[in-house]
Structures are given as C-alpha cells and as structure tokens.
Amino acid sequence: MSELSLHGCYLDMMNPFPKGTLVLVRISAGNALFAAKSKIIYSQPNMGAGVVFLQIEPQSQTSLEHWLDGAEKDNQRQVG
Fold first, then answer.
1. What value does the mean pLDDT of the chain take?
2. DSSP secondary-structure letter at 74?
C-alpha cells in the first residue's frame, strides 16, 4: 500500500482486480486499524491498483487522520 490519502490509496500487487471491483481495504499499523469499503478506480497489470474509499467507519477515519497528520509532521521536519 502507498499513496495513502483521505480518499483512497494505491495497492501494490502483481494481479490487480479489474476497474470497478468492490473491495474491503484493511490496514493496520501498531495498535491502529483501518477498514473501508472501497472500489478499484484504475488497474495496472503487474503493478497494482488505485482505490477510492467509499465507506469508512468513524474509528477507522480517526486512525487514518492520525496517520496522515503524523506523516505530514514527519515531512515538515525533513524539509525544515
């Protein structure tokens, strides 16, 4: 998984699902969990797929926002 945002992410995989496929994305980091009903919006054979989050539970939304805030602070430290 890469390119995580509030609205979706990129999933690295050799055999990605076709565009339009509904998937459940689950991410864990430390004690935090994230789950979202999602849809494949583009697929690149032998590379991966772009996913848009369709439905995120409130607790998962909190985890996602926390991760993104942490990544932004790390980026600011590296630039500054």
1. 93
2. H
Binned at pLDDT 50, 70 and 90, residue 80 comes out as: low
Amino acid at 31: N
DSSP annotation string for 3-72: S--SSEEEEE-SSPPPTT-EEEEEEEETTEEEEEEEEEEEEETTTEEEEEEEEE-HHHHHHHHHHHHHHH
Q: What tokens appear for 52 in the block?
A: 């848009």
Residue matched to tokens 């926002």: 65
Beta bridge partners of 29: 32
pTM value? 0.88
Does residue 9 contact residue 51 with C-beta atoms inside 8 Å? yes
